[in-house]
């Protein structure tokens, strides 16, 4: 009779993040664990680089959305 405790290991949870492009300032939402390169929709500069885990960002994180 185990109680149903919610799993709360937030470290591995993926999230969407709002990032400002460092080149043009465009604000764009992308997935924090994207498996592909994410280009800026406005100037085409690379916003995120896949690393196998969380992406490496080339901009500033403005907000994390879950
Ligand atoms: Zn840009």
Contiguous helical run count: 0
N-to-C terminal Cα separation, in Å?
Answer: 32 Å
What oligomeric state do these chains adopt?
single chain
Taken in chain order, the helices and strands follow as EEEEEE
Class by alpha and beta content: mainly beta
Number of strands: 6
Main pleated-sheet profile: 3 strands, antiparallel
What would the CATH topology be?
A: N-terminal domain of TfIIb
Architecture, CATH level 2? Answer: Single Sheet
SSE layout and pairings?
Layout: E1 16-21, E2 27-31, E3 38-39, E4 46-49, E5 56-57, E6 59-65
Antiparallel strand pairs: 1-2, 1-6, 3-4, 4-5
Bound molecules: zinc ion.
Structure description:
By secondary structure, this protein is an all-beta fold. It has one domain (14-65): Ribosomal protein S27 (N-terminal domain of TfIIb), CATH 2.20.25. It contains no helices and six strands. The chain has strands at 16-21, 27-31, 38-39, 46-49, 56-57, 59-65. A three-stranded antiparallel β-sheet has the order 2-1-6, with no helix packed on it. The termini are far apart. The mean pLDDT is 87. Bound molecules: zinc ion (ZN). Residues 21, 23-24, 26, 40, 42-43, 45 line the site of zinc ion.
């Amino acid at each position: 009779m185990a109680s149903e405790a919610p799993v709360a290991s937030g470290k591995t949870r993926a999230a969407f993040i709002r990032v400002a492009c460092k080149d043009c300032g465009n604000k764009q939402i992308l997935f924090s664990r994207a498996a592909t390169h994410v280009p800026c929709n406005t100037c085409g500069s690379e916003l995120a680089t896949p690393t196998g885990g969380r992406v490496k960002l080339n901009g500033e994180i403005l907000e994390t959305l879950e």
